[in-house]
Write a structure and sequence with these properties.
With 447 residues, this protein is of the alpha+beta class. The chain has two domains: 3-267 and 395-443, 2-methylcitrate dehydratase PrpD, CATH 1.10.4100.10; 272-386, 2-methylcitrate dehydratase PrpD (60s Ribosomal Protein L30, Chain: A), CATH 3.30.1330.120. Helix content is 51%, strand content 6%. The protein contains 19 helices and six strands. It has helices spanning 3-13, 21-40, 45-54, 73-86, 99-112, 117-137, 140-145, 150-166, 171-182, 196-216, 232-237, 248-252, 259-262, 275-288, 324-333, 343-346, 349-352, 400-428, 437-443, and strands at 62-63, 70-71, 295-302, 358-362, 373-378, 381-386. The strands form two sheets. It has a four-stranded mixed beta sheet, with helices on one face. Helix 1 (3-13) crosses helix 9 (171-182). The longest helix has 29 residues, at 400-428. The chain starts with a helix and ends with a helix.
């Protein structure tokens, strides 16, 4: 059976009663977390600008988080996806940022088609598993070496899976949806540190929703667009090099369920790869009491340095995608929060006067901790602070209570503490909801 046919057969068969409870619980936490970080992005420049554009287009089908306005299904996915990636506070997995693409598609299609919370959860899980299947064919590092952003690369197909399931596409229609989505795949890492990086999440989610809607209407694509000649894998992912690409790796893992073993929650609103280094910097500060003035130099040594992390920060947005600025901020302030990445905080003299002491090095021998080491010269001494796996990684899961607390902190900025708490309780039981619309109506009202 062709790869696309096998994948479509799997997607149409996903039901909650087949999914282990631990994966269901993690999926619910992922949905909760994503809605919270999207609400935290309300009012930030990327979301404001995209919503201003969308407001010029008629539509009254689907909700935009943190706004009383409604718009078309696919434009709601565009705005909510952009909001959810604005702070780079959203989750990660082996195929990039999963929920920033899956959840907006889930909300938009689920609301307009009036599906139950159980169906929304099934669609989210199916979309996540398709992303995992695709990432087993092409390792994430490989696509980034070609300058492509994995979230934008895999996202249109995972979003098309979510919307396709909620539209109840048959297997053939689902394959057409993937074919349509394949022609909308891609986003360059050269745009990291700008407003366009969060737009990747919105475009990927929108593309999948639109692809599913078109497929439902009878619009056609190549049924073998994923793995056929000059298809998605051949042309986009492997840059025309199919040698060594084994699609059997993807289908072999279907129905083994991967969410609980791959999902990564973020503690800090910046690139995931810096999360452990921030923890290490905070531990150094607590253990030594030293401040930036006391330091001669700080080397962030990591076994592998991805290309876009080699760029020194030039502003608050680019500061999210390196090590130097968040590590320096952690030592100076004793915390890394949303306001850490404001322009005002970034341009403080007591930060800018010390950033020159920091540099990031790729060092395969940096094995003090599983993710590297901070080598700090201070007061004539050399201090080595290991970079450990951060809390929230699937190898070191955060307790559910911390995910709920993060959601409430983020949501209450927009909707107030009462609505934040009530919506958290409803989303934690999403599979029991007859509709997602009451939750979205609550989250549309600004406190």
């Amino acid at each position: 059976m062709a790869f696309g046919a096998t994948l479509a057969q799997y997607v149409t068969s996903v039901t909650l009663d087949k999914v282990p409870q631990r994966d269901i619980e993690v999926a619910k936490l992922a949905i909760l977390d994503q809605i919270g970080v999207a609400l935290a992005g309300v009012g930030e420049a990327p979301g404001v600008k995209v919503q201003a554009l969308v407001d010029r287009v008629a539509g009254n089908e689907a909700s935009v988080l943190g706004s009383p306005r409604k718009t078309s299904t696919w434009l709601a996915a565009l705005v909510n996806g952009t909001l959810g990636h604005t702070l780079d506070f959203d989750d990660c997995s082996s195929f990039g940022h999963p929920s920033v693409v899956l959840v907006p598609a889930m909300l938009a299609s689920g609301e307009t088609r009036e599906r139950s919370g159980r169906e929304l959860l099934e669609a989210y899980i199916a979309g996540y598993e398709v992303g995992e299947a695709l990432s087993r064919i092409v390792p994430r590092r490989a696509d980034q070496f070609h300058g492509l952003h994995s979230t934008a690369l895999f996202g249109p197909l995972t979003s098309a899976t979510v919307s396709g399931k909620l539209l109840r596409l048959d297997e053939s229609q689902q394959r057409h949806a993937w074919g349509i989505a394949s022609s909308q795949s891609g986003g360059i890492t050269g745009n990291f540190g700008t407003h366009t990086k969060p737009l990747h999440g919105g475009i990927a989610s929108q593309a999948g929703v639109m692809a599913a809607e078109l497929a439902a209407s009878g619009f056609e694509a190549n049924l073998d667009a994923i793995d056929g000649p000059l298809g998605y894998i051949d042309s986009v992912v492997a840059a025309g090099r199919m040698e060594g690409v084994d699609v059997n790796k993807a289908t072999a893992g279907l129905a083994q369920w991967h969410i609980a073993d791959t999902w990564r929650l973020k503690k800090y609103p910046c690139g995931y790869i810096a999360q452990g280094a921030i923890d290490a910097a905070l531990q150094f500060r607590e253990q030594t009491g030293l401040q930036l003035d006391n330091l001669t130099s700080v080397e962030i040594r990591v076994p592998h340095l991805q290309p876009y992390f080699r760029v020194r920060p030039t502003g608050e947005f680019s500061g999210k995608f390196g090590y130097e600025y968040p590590v320096a901020s952690a030592i100076l302030d004793g915390r890394v929060i949303k306001s850490t990445f404001s322009d005002q905080a970034f341009r403080r003299p007591d930060i800018q006067g010390h950033l020159g002491k920091f540099r990031t090095l790729e060092d395969p021998a940096a094995t003090d901790g599983p993710l590297g080491v901070l080598v700090i010269e201070a007061q004539g001494k050399t201090i080595r602070q290991p970079i450990e796996i951060p809390l929230g990684d699937h190898r070191r899961p955060a307790p559910p209570s911390q995910v709920v607390e993060k959601y409430i902190r983020n949501a209450q900025e927009v909707v107030g503490p009462e609505v934040a708490g009530k919506s958290a309780r409803m989303l934690q039981s999403i599979e029991t909801l007859p509709s997602i619309r009451p939750v979205l109506d609550m989250l549309a009202k600004r406190a």
